[in-house]
Inverse folding.
């Protein structure tokens, strides 16, 4: 099994697309990239921990490649917005691909270059590609939020959905 970590705004909206992909064994919401050990949601929201909301994906590379996960990641984010995602603003919502190996870094960078060259976006691709740091799981009430509160999930993901439809359809 391998591990991938992606940040793309509120982690609530990042879980479902990955969780529904064949070859993905688990998707957990959490925090990474900061300097405070075991942060709480409230601490991360205070913007003092340096952490970003992210998802940790455990996947079977025999059934789903890391390159395929990166391509799916692009289709969940606005890669031209470094200061948050959609209605979620600030560093804790910035788009980041956190790599866990040199191979993952190379795959992510090549994919980012292809996306930039594609002309799909009229602004530069600014998503960061950074080495993974410790991933801290978020509180249980954040896990699989789309299943726990589908109405609230739908409201929070509408802006994201509309943007994605306009760029990936």
């Amino acid at each position: 099994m391998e591990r991938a970590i992606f940040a793309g705004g509120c982690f609530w909206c990042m879980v479902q697309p990955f969780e529904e992909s064949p070859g993905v064994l688990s998707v957990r919401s959490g925090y990474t990239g900061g300097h405070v050990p075991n942060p709480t949601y409230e601490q991360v929201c205070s913007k003092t921990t340096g952490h970003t909301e992210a998802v940790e994906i455990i996947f079977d590379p025999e059934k789903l490649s890391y390159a395929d996960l990166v391509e799916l990641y692009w289709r969940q984010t606005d890669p031209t917005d470094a200061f948050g995602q959609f209605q979620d603003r600030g560093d804790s919502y910035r788009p980041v691909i956190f790599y866990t190996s040199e191979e993952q870094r190379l795959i992510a960078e090549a994919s980012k270059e292809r996306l930039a060259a594609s002309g799909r976006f009229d602004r530069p691709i600014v998503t960061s590609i950074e080495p993974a740091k410790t991933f801290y799981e978020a509180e249980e009430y954040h896990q699989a939020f789309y299943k726990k509160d589908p109405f609230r999930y739908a409201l929070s993901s509408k802006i994201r959905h509309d943007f994605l439809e306009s760029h990936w359809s």
